[in-house]
Amino acid sequence: MPRETTHEVTKLLSEWSSGNRAALDQLTPLVYSELRRLASRQMRRERVGHTLQTTALVNEAYLRLVEQKDTHWRDRAHFFALSAQLMRHILVDHARRRGYQKRGGGAIQVTLDETAVMLDEKSTELLALDEALKGLAERDPLKGQIVELRYFGGLTIEEIAEVLNVAPVTIKRHWKAAKGWLYHELKQNDSNGN
Prior knowledge:
Helix 2 packs antiparallel against helix 3. This protein has helices at 3-17, 21-44, 54-66, 76-102, 114-119, 121-139, 141-152, 157-164, 168-191. Helix content is 76%, strand content 0%. It has 9 helices and no strands. By secondary structure, the protein is an all-alpha fold. The radius of gyration is 18 Å and the shape is globular. It has one domain (3-191). The longest helix has 27 residues, at 76-102.
């Protein structure tokens, strides 16, 4: 995003936070392609044949963003960080609903298709990652935020430092430690058969 556009986005976010609905109308075309890029990035991690499409993920995230009444947007990075977090929650909720439906969900299941089980592996991985990330956030909220912003939001170390108001070198150190901790947790979860 060009620097001028970045400043324009920050200005419009501030106006929107102050209650100017016209600012939201001006903001939408400026951020839509970036929201789509974020959604696309997240969908690439999902299983082939995922029932939620990129456009639906962007639209759902956008609707949730518009509902944010008490959010005081600091800048573009803050906006996209929250967008990434919302997309992650949408995907996790979708995976949970799908798991509920696969286990019956109130309907009668006649057959279990082996292919569907293989396709659901990515949903299981997403749920495992979500659980591990919650555990990390409970132990160390800063590391949890860093992983969310970096992995799900695609923000750079410098953008994360800006959002969290922490030195980039500190972000790098926490990012490295968080990746190691998550790897250990996911590996342990996998070896326990969960």
